[in-house]
Fold:
Amino acid sequence: MPDIIHEFWVASPASAVFAAIATPDGLAHWWTKSSIGRVETGAEYVLDFGPAHRWAGVVTQCVPEARFEFRITHADADWTGTLVGFVLTPEGARTRVTFHHSGWPAANEHWRVSSYCWAMYLRIMRRYVEHGEVVPYGKRLQA
Structure:
């Protein structure tokens, strides 16, 4: 199964990055339109991307300031069952972020497009954490 992996640095402490990737409010500032969930292993999250795209996931890993991962339980066919996760490693005044979206059924067009889109969203997340920038939901892939 193919995976999507991105590694980058954020010029902020791991606590700020963790808040952006694990809390419903944080996710809504860079990825989802809105989110509902609790920051704990086993919690269910609703990931709202608009009326036709109300997806869900279960938290499989939650170590504050270090790891956060969802298993996508309700989405389109290619995403359902995949893992979306982050490993945070403090390095001085910045944090190394190792992102993965693993378990794809095939290296198909949707996998290729999603890899590109993740790079765009992760860049927006970094700008949000480092500078407080919030790109309106409908303009995120053009930012």
User: Anything to note?
Assistant: The mean pLDDT is 96. The CA atoms of residues 2 and 115 lie 11 Å apart.
